[in-house]
Specification:
The protein is of the alpha/beta class. The protein has one domain. The chain has seven helices and seven strands; from the N terminus they run H-E-H-E-E-E-E-H-E-E-H-H-H-H. Helix 4 packs across helix 6 and helix 5 crosses helix 7.
Amino acid sequence: MKAFPELVAALSEILDRLDESLRSSGYAGPPIQMYLAGGLAVNYYCGTRHTEDVDASFSHRLVLPKHLEATYRTASGQERFIYLNENYNTSFALLHDDFERDSKPWVGIGNERRLVHLNVLTPVDLAVSKVARFSEQDRDDIRALAAERLFNAKQFRQRAKEASGNFIGNKVPLELSIELACHDIDAVLRQ
């Protein structure tokens, strides 16, 4: 894990507030799984950038408490904040059917003491999730993940092709983005 410590502390604060809300509601069921994607998951693997939004999906439908956010200071002293993105939706991301099953627990974040267990998408699933939007930031994130040597272009292409099988609509732009991402991955791995 390469996540910025101050960002981890802010995320932990959000998870504590979510846990407190669940406990005060009387929930006593099995742990709820939270699947982290987006820039914060990239930071977990690469330590490359700060982000403001926490993009995550859950194993259960939840009534979220208002204002799930936390402020923190970066290592350089800049004040920042993060918030749980209530608008994040896995229906619009390119995700493999097994992304939840294959996700990995975030070790050291306090899963053992909370009703919400934080899991991080695997590096290849995280990269694949960036293909549907494929902004310049998404391409940078894919390159950063590739630079960590966590997957190669062949693994990425296979996982993306499997994931695209369930996408509905014109897949031509998606297929082009997959090939551009593979080109980017190959270029990074040659360095």
